[in-house]
Amino acid sequence: MFCHLRPVRRLCPGKIFPYWFLYSRALSGAEAVNALRPFYFAVHPDFFGQHPREREVNENSLKRLSAYLENLQKPGFKSLKPTQLMFYIRETDQNSSDGQEHFSTSGFRAVKFTLHTRDLLSTVLYILNSCSLSIEHIQSLNTNVHSQPLKEATRISDRPIKWDKSYYSFTGFKDPDEDLEQVWRMETTLTSWLDNNGKSAVKKLKNSLPLRKELDRLKDELSHQLQLSDIRWQRSWGIAHRCSQLHSLGRLAQQNLESLKNAKGCTIIFTDRSGMSAVGHVMLGTMDVHHHWTKLFERLPSYFDLQRSLMLLEDQISYLLGGIQVVYIEELQPVLTLEEYYSLLDVFYNRLLKSRIPFHPRSLRGLQMILNSDRYAPSLHELGHFNIPILCDPANLQWFILTKAQQARENMKRKEELKVIENELMQASTKKFSLEKFYKEPSVSSIQMVDCCKRLLEQSLPYLQGMHLCISHFYSVMQDGDLCIPWNWKNGAIK
Predict the structure, then answer these.
(1) Which chain positions lie within coiled-coil regions (predicted)?
(2) Which of 57, 116, 207, 421 has a Cα at 20 to 30 A from 162?
């Protein structure tokens, strides 16, 4: 690169990235995904079920990272804008005495970095190093990797290389720090973002209207034909994708209507795997073939039996804990199958039976708790429910619930009050801006939504007329024209 220049000779490429990176073959898309497996495991949203804000941040950052990686693989691309990302990384203690990984006290740490690399391999290395994750496994992906340079690569500092300003003046190359500093300084405002993206959203929304009508028609027909309570989607698939999934379900109904009648009264959710969810919804894995769906519908009667056993188990736990209700909150917990959730309840119930914690009967009626398998102490959520680990010490559990019971009741009362205010403000916002649809991501709390709506109502935003507006944690125009804005959007001049 520039090793012949005396001022920077000691910073030749082999010191920044190992020599096998410079002279090895290009990394394929599949190899990049495989190389990033430790990273995906550390940031996967499903592991942040008890932390909805952190889960949402990781989901949004993964979407942006995916787009960046896709653009790198497009033929003929010239340059990419620096992309600032933030992730919450699961912390584990790998030096524990029993040789097992454990969550640290905090559970996770925040990492920020800005992508400005121009090929897959350097991007993968940059991501792993930024997150303090090992890169040794990348050796198996490249035949030109040598052991000694690899050891050198693991010692790379996480801090970016700081070149002297005179170097750029002398060579005429552009200082990348200037671009990055501008990215960090710039803060998007609501009005500026709508000015830049409003027309695009209107066009996408208009193009999606015929498909939206088709989706509503298919959903109504199938719900009526199969006597379903609802049809939902777990992921943010586009309208065309959703229509395709409903067409597949419709074809299956034509071929095997009798088995599908077992789903009468159920909610069907298109998601990543087939089965029954912890709350009794029928999950259809979008990657599964019709044969798997058919088998699932045929097995539904046995799932209903397990569901009744699960409800009985919840009642038994509630009785042992003074009447506190055991609930499963989809928005705040990992996606579990009915079998997985039953197993959690069973482990917790047997521990309670052995300990026989003395709770006065019905003394905790009206309160709620959720179970989780994370290694955390019990906690009280701002919404009023208790977060209880299945392996929690029974004595600590009793003390914690009794001392926090009054606060839990106050939180639950406040939650109901906020919900009423939230609904009123959402209706007022829908009316003022003539929105076609106004909704929020599940991870946006009522407190956040109330704050967002109050500030929205003070604005004049003509671009919103007739639009679909979603309150989230980031700015985005969805592929079908829905506008996503962060609940804590900012406006006015940014210093």
Answers:
(1) 404-431
(2) 57
CA distance 455 to 457: 5
Single-letter residue type at 227: Q
Q: pLDDT digits over 12-24, tens only? A: 433 334 433 433 4
The reported pTM is: 0.63
pLDDT digits (tens, 9 = 90+) for 430-440: 999 999 999 99
Q: Quickly tell me which residue has 């506008």 as its tokens.
A: 483
Q: Give residue 302's identity as a one-letter amino acid code.
A: S
Q: Which residues contact 293 (CB under 8 A, 6 or more apart)?
A: 249, 252, 274, 284
Which residues share a beta bridge with 439? 470
Torsion of CA 483, 489, 491, 495, to 10 degrees: -130
Q: In 10 A of CB 255, how many CB atoms?
A: 11
Strands 386-389 and 379-380: antiparallel
Report whether 484 contacts 477 (CB < 8 A).
yes
Q: Which amino acid would we find at residue 450?
A: V
Beta strand spans in 255-294 (E):
267-271, 275-276, 282-285
